[in-house]
Design brief:
Elements: H1 3-17, H2 29-39, H3 45-58, H4 62-66, H5 70-77, H6 83-100, H7 109-114, H8 120-129, H9 140-149, H10 158-168, H11 171-187
Helix pairs in contact: 2-6, 2-8, 5-6, 9-11
The chain binds a DNA duplex through residues 23-25, 37-38, 40-45, 47, 78-86, 89, 116-122, 125, 137-142, 156-158, 178-179, 181-182, 185-186, 190-192.
GO molecular function, one term: metal ion binding
Family: Belongs to the Nth/MutY family.
EC number: 4.2.99.18
Amino acid sequence: MTKKQRALKAIEALKELYPVAHCSLDTTGALQLLIATRLSAQCTDARVNQVTPVLFRKFPTLQSFVEADIKDIEDIIRSCGLYKTKAKDIKNMCIDIAQKYGGQVPDTMEDLTSLPGVGRKTANLVLGEVFGKPAVVADTHCIRLSGRIGLTTVTKDAYKVEKELRAILPPEESNDFCHRLVYHGRAVCTARSPKCDQCTLADICISCGKV
DNA sequence: ATCCCGAGGG
DNA sequence: CCCTCTGGAT
């Protein structure tokens, strides 16, 4: 079975298992998703969803973030971890959005990744979720599961995984598929001891029972 | 101990 | 490639 064939089978199987595919960060609009995604690094979505309502109540507009005291942002987001860099990134990305992009979150990979604290993972998520563009979100789950299932050969470099996946995934499927990999990575194909005995991908996965 | 939907710098 | 930033969950 080729990687592309394996991918198509995985797409269909996960579609059946997880009919609804969407980002579990609780946000409204591009700016909130951008900020919530930056907060989600090394942190659970549940924790981010606990923090963002407080954050967005205190800073309801782009301009309020531009004028924010970093310390106030830090105090609110501390429990998400990596709070110093995240707070600085949030303020600085808002400054750039205000000054370079007329107050609108940009809608291209190049412009998004030019923002402080916005890497390819965050940019892809926003491009897919907010702007409806084909995106491959190569996060920790996507990288781990793609490698295990046998869709990719590289395992460490996120950008290489993204490119390998883009080569075999139908563009119109990639966005939802990546979300479903996250669901599956949390529920079944966990980092430490994957539940291969109850995995819907058992018949196509090259690592079934071997991890 | 090891991992969580990362990004930037060396 | 590697490391660091960091709190919380398991």
